[in-house]
Amino acid sequence: MSKQFVGEIKDRDLVSAVFLVKDKVLAMAKNGKPYMNLRLMDKSGDIEAKVWDNTEVLDKQFDKDDFVKVRGKASVYMNKMQVVIAEITKVPEEQVLLADFLPESPRDAKEMRQELSDVVAALADRHLKGLMDSFLADEPLMALYCQAPAAKGMHHVYLGGLLEHSLSLVKLVKKVVPLYAGINEELLVVGALLHDVGKIYEMSFVRAIDYTDEGKLLGHITIGVELVGEKIHALEAFPRELSLLLKHMLLSHHGLYEYGSPKRPKTVEATILNYLDDLDSKINGIQTHIAREPASTSRWSAHHRLYDRYFFKSNGMCSEQEVESVRDETCHEALPEPVERVVVREEPRSFNNQPLRVLENLKLF
Q1: If you write DSSP's letter for every residue of 152-201 in order, what string do you get?
Q2: How much is the pLDDT for 133?
Q3: N or C: which end of the chain has fewer CB within 10 A?
């Protein structure tokens, strides 16, 4: 029997399949009755699931990262698909095909590896090319680099996500550099390829995507700088200043201290890398968030917890007929929660002959 994947589940479907437990929480309902909230996943995505009965007994029978056979019924609640579980049992790992349970990049893995090789082969700076050649020659490291996700929850959360994200940055670099004078394009390209290299050891991706002990204690920025430093040390006569500039790009690519960046960008190249990294990460994260709701007819996405907003899914590219077909279904829907809008008002009072600007918080949709 073929596997029933998360991405195939529709409203009111009967669900009978094996999934990987991505998350598991035992909670208490308002009436004081315990229930279990699960996040089940396979390579096509993940879905929320609820267990309402016999939860205290079932809680002892399986854990996060276990495989479970689920029987239940799907329904759409608050624009999100979920499964109400009637039966759930643990399944031994040897009885499942692991390739069914971790999502993969939509891009072909061999095609991305070839693109990486082509980018490195085109480098003219012998020092930067020598550094990247040393990474490409390290087969165990490159196997991880080509397989690792780019993050656990924000963006490119799938096998091959790190390589896909890094190659996307290279394309953005090549679009941006011609717009400005005096930019070291090859330094930026290598910075784009190596900025997240530490994630190969920060992330665990054998089953569910999670953080390793090394990742939690050091983080990918520290790990990445150490990896680059080791490779540079093994090379002959790598320029010290070029090493400093490259390491600075890794240390500052998160931009701000509050975003986990040990240093703020202090070169033009580091500044460009910071903004392009943020751009590619956010666009992938938003598009992935919207794509998780194929069953929803609403023109608005569900609330995005990390960005703290709803996203309008229409962008003017659909036909008038398509707009009309959803308008009747959505015009009477509850609007998203009110958001704050900051309005600046000029007051007649002044300080040093300058108008006093006052902020007002207004509630609107």
Answers
A1: SSSS--SBTHHHHHHHHHHHHHHHHGGGSSS--HHHHHHHHHHTTTTHHH
A2: 98
A3: N
Cα–Cα distance, 272 to 254 (Å, whole number): 11
Residues 210/223, Cβ–Cβ less than 8 Å: no
pLDDT, tens digit, for every residue of 330-345? Answer: 434 444 444 444 444 4
pLDDT in tens, 138-176: 999 999 999 999 988 778 888 999 999 999 999 999 999
Contacts of 138 (CB under 8 A, 6+ apart): none
CATH of domain 6-100: 2.40.50.140
Indicate where the chain has its CATH 2.40.50.140 domain(s).
Answer: 6-100
Q: The domain 109-287: what is its CATH number?
A: 1.10.3210
Task: Give the count of beta carbons closer than 10 Å to the beta carbon of residue 42.
Answer: 25
**CA–CA distance, 156 with 327 (Å, rounded to integer):** 32
> Rounded CA gap, 36 and 29, in Å?
10
Global pTM reads: 0.72
Residues 218, 212: Cα–Cα separation, whole Å: 10
Exposed, middle or buried by CB within 10 Å (0-12, 13-18, 19+), for 34? middle
Six-digit token pair at 204?
A: 């665990």
Single-letter amino acid code for the residue at 157? V
Residue 352 has pLDDT above 80, yes or no: no
